[in-house]
Amino acid sequence: MALLITKKCINCDMCEPECPNQAISMGAEYYEIDADRCTECVGHYDAPTCQSVCPIDHTIVADPARVESNNALWEKFVILHHSA
């Protein structure tokens, strides 16, 4: 499933440069994740880097509106990084 940045975000800018899929950008009030680009770092890392660099616990969470299997996340990674 894609990840979601909650309103607990303090706009520290730690997550945006760490995202290998360029899925994180500044929204109207705080950073947001483009669910169509988020693979939870599948294909890049063992765990989502945005969660590991975020200084506020439970700010970046699983998006309940975007439940995706690991296979679906892998397919998204392939499309994002290996399309001709």
From TrEMBL:
<dbReference type="InterPro" id="IPR017900">
    <property type="entry name" value="4Fe4S_Fe_S_CS"/>
</dbReference>
<keyword id="KW-0813">Transport</keyword>
<dbReference type="InterPro" id="IPR047927">
    <property type="entry name" value="YfhL-like"/>
</dbReference>
<keyword id="KW-0411">Iron-sulfur</keyword>
<feature type="domain" description="4Fe-4S ferredoxin-type">
    <location>
        <begin position="1"/>
        <end position="29"/>
    </location>
</feature>
<dbReference type="GO" id="GO:0051539">
    <property type="term" value="F:4 iron, 4 sulfur cluster binding"/>
</dbReference>
<keyword id="KW-0408">Iron</keyword>
<keyword id="KW-0479">Metal-binding</keyword>
<dbReference type="GO" id="GO:0005737">
    <property type="term" value="C:cytoplasm"/>
</dbReference>
<dbReference type="GO" id="GO:0046872">
    <property type="term" value="F:metal ion binding"/>
</dbReference>
<dbReference type="Pfam" id="PF12838">
    <property type="entry name" value="Fer4_7"/>
</dbReference>
<keyword id="KW-0677">Repeat</keyword>
<dbReference type="InterPro" id="IPR017896">
    <property type="entry name" value="4Fe4S_Fe-S-bd"/>
</dbReference>
<dbReference type="InterPro" id="IPR050157">
    <property type="entry name" value="PSI_iron-sulfur_center"/>
</dbReference>
<keyword id="KW-0249">Electron transport</keyword>
<keyword id="KW-0004">4Fe-4S</keyword>
<protein>
    <submittedName>
        <fullName>Ferredoxin</fullName>
    </submittedName>
</protein>
